[in-house]
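Batch manifest line 341
LIGAND: magnesium ion
JOB: complex structure
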Amino acid sequence: MANLGEFEFIAQLLQGPAAQGQPFYRHPLALGIGDDAALIPPLGPQEQLAVASDMLIEGRHYFADCDPRSLGHKVLAVNLSDLAAMGARPLAFTLSAGLREIRRPWIESFLDGMLSLARESQCPLIGGDTTAVGEQAPEVFSVTALGVVQAGTALRRDGLRPGDDLWVSGHLGDAAFALAQKINDPKLNCPQPRLALGLGLVGLASAAIDISDGLQSELMHLLNGAQNRAAQPQRLQANLNWQKLPLGPLVKQAIQAGRLMPPQAAGIAITGGDEYELLFGASPRERIHLQALGEQLSLALTRIGSVDSSDRPVVCWRDASGQPPPEILQDMIARGGFRHF
Ligand code: ADP
Ligand code: MG
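JOB STATUS: finished
ARTIFACT:
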């Protein structure tokens, strides 16, 4: 099977996304792939544009021999997850690719994975760039996703208040466990951005973030956000029970089979990355509404702790009886989640 040239590739893109019949393309002032720039129709007077960019590099964020369909899905999913964490509705996205060569079956599977998710999420591909990298260079994919949010209602990282509950969607640990064990798992290969949840949380949550680098590190981002915000900055302490974390089926199975001890499993859930679940804060007044939202979306929403005023931003893990975690878990937390540098 022959490689594609750049223009053949773009011609192929034109057929795919333009044929999606998205509302975007029906707007008289919208223009997608094919011109020097895409045109985005005007937003409503009370709307803000949310912009998220994320890049995946071969050998660093994915293996060269990975399934191209999953990779295409994932590079869009991680960006949509950022929009979800802002409470934004997807509008459109661009794809920039640095490729050694445009191998036909590979790139078709990649696009198939990416554009299936795009269709499901009503988020059309409207442009991008395609460039050759050196023969020895890693390939790279960069997506910029655009979303819309009602002005002033976005779920920011800096909104936590003392007394807020802390919640997490779905279950944790399976993506990191699958990666470490080299197991194929849907959480790792095919993360589902929590877009409907993000939209549902607008007006309910005080702050939100998606879990890409690990729960512990995202908790710190929320605490630092509250400490650094312009209006009424607050030092907060997060108090959480490690035994209450919602663990994924893969991790639970490993506990049952005696391959993981519960504190180790919690350690994976606390430090493991690639979850793409939402971590959010909300006033205890919203508990009933959040429970109803979870039921409506058929998505587990688990209250994992709360935040209180403190003299410094710190994450404090305990068990049900108020005891600090066993040493093995403390060590895992101290070693921390994924660091990019
Ligand atoms: P220019 O030379 O003006 O940058 P290009 O030849 O790079 O134009 O791109 C032509 C059209 O194809 C543009 O509309 C661009 O947005 C689109 N395009 C190029 N590469 C991609 C890609 N990887 N994904 C989506 N659209 C792309
Ligand atoms: Mg270009």
